[in-house]
Amino acid sequence: MVKKIKSVALEKTGGTEVDIEADVSCGLPYFNIVGFADISAKEASERVKRAILNSGFEYPKSRVTVNLTPAYLHKKGSHFDLGIAIGILCASGVISDKTAGRVFIGELSFDGEVLPVKRLIPMLTAVMSDDNVKEIIASEANCKEAFLITSSSDKKLICVKSLKEAAEYINGNDKAPYSSIYENYEEQIIDDFEDVRGHEEVKEAIMTAVAGEHNILMIGSPGTGKTMIAKRIPGILPPMSREEQIETTALYSYADRLTDKEPVMLRRPFRHVSTGVTVKALIGGGRIPMPGEVSLADKGVLFIDEMLELPANILEALREPLEERKAVISRSSGSVVFPADFLLVGAANPCRCGYLGDKIHECTCSQSEIIRYRNKLSGALADRIDICIEILRTDYENLKGKKGLTSSDMKDIISEVRDIQMKRGCINGLMTDRQVKEFCILNDEGEAFLKSAYRSMGISPRRYCKILKVARTIADFRKRNLIGVSELAAAAHYTRFLKGGRIM
């Protein structure tokens, strides 16, 4: 007798439906798996046999052949175990064959326990659009991760602890679908902007950057608070939508970065990169392509500390992800595309010694050393940074002064500005050229000011668009429809260290 069971396989970064055909026929006892399976899938023969026997079921004393279709697809992993075991039990008449519309995913231990599998969410994307699939049966240890994607569909998630429990459910035992309430999740702000004394201009620049998704570079001497400020940015980011949670969790699931403490990504990621990073670690790569830091920061913040200390080839590798919002890893077998929609927050010293412009310490760098150090940031990369702000040493009076806006207050203000942008249908920092022409309307004084600034500051066409986008965000904070001189002057002020596309 032949029984067909539905499961899924991982192909590149997504899933593909796979049929497990279990055939129990007359002949000498033998177990064979065909269908282009790798070693981990072929080893299912012993795991399944022991799991069936140790679960109290009778294993067929005949020829067992399992076919994984489609045959052209390379099947990797041990997550076919549960489907293979159920198929054999159905084909041999041990349990009911009511498996239509059900997908089985799970690894089996010798005692019949259904173990969790890695990269579950990318695999589940294969069945989300299949109307014929009504239920997904998986390990209880995967339930939180799986529910994130199934909760937005009409498919039931049935979580089981053992093969016996799965078999009993198929035989008709009632079992309630798994459910959880993610809507009650509230992110706790640990690092609060309230603790940042002074730096009011910097806070305004940070709010502008976050509200409009403008990449920002902070320049300041060591100890002025660059890292402290950057670590507080996640606390003022808008909450993630369910679609963003699914995309980020799927990415972390594929990269095997989910933990028992954080089985799903409900908060925006914050990735801290410093001078020891490599191109492979930053962009992604490997024999089996894996996402790098630019992708792990998707829908969140990528903080690059000591940015100008990075080698030129690493800095230039950022250009494509910043422009295209994706990272492409090319191999002879094909290309893999990972999302890379992040907010870039950079921190750098003003010079090699770090004390140029410092009120206390004297800079020891020559002019040629300063120019050489700052020119590490190429014009092409500088044009992809919207805001550049100088962070100066805080006076003693400011350290003892009153506290400023809290992260919660800043988040509320940013949410209002985001709402204005969403009514237009786009975030300011991500506007296309056509949207810039449509929404970045200048008054007469603003038009004359920008024309003069374009010529006198040597602004590139890309930088011109960046200034308009930043000015649009500033105008949204002030609830103005037309962009005037004050907004343009503030946006141009943020580019004063990037004159001509290079830090000045």
Commentary on this structure:
The chain is an alpha/beta fold and 504 residues long. It folds into 2 domains: 2-170, Ribosomal Protein S5, domain 2, CATH 3.30.230.10; 193-501, P-loop containing nucleotide triphosphate hydrolases (Rossmann fold). 36% of the residues lie in helices and 18% in strands. It has helices at 39-42, 44-54, 81-91, 120-124, 143-150, 163-170, 200-212, 226-231, 242-254, 279-283, 293-296, 312-316, 319-324, 367-374, 379-382, 396-399, 407-424, 433-439, 444-456, 461-477, 485-493, and strands spanning 2-11, 14-25, 30-34, 63-69, 102-104, 107-108, 114-115, 135-139, 156-160, 216-220, 270-273, 284-285, 290-291, 301-304, 326-331, 334-339, 343-348, 387-391. The strands form 6 sheets. Strands 11-14-17-10-18 form a 5-stranded parallel β-sheet. A hairpin with a 2-residue loop joins β1 (2-11) and β2. α2 crosses α3, α19 runs parallel beside α21 and α20 crosses α21. The radius of gyration is 28 Å and the shape is elongated. It starts with a strand and ends in an 11-residue tail after the last helix. The model is unreliable at 499-504 (pLDDT under 50).
Short description:
The chain has 504 residues and is an alpha/beta fold. Helix content is 36%, strand content 18%.
Q: What are the segments in which pLDDT stays under 50 over at least 5 consecutive residues?
A: 499-504
Average pLDDT reading: 91
Helix content: 25-40%
Q: Please compute the radius of gyration using only Cα atoms.
A: 28 Å
CATH class designation of the largest domain: Alpha Beta
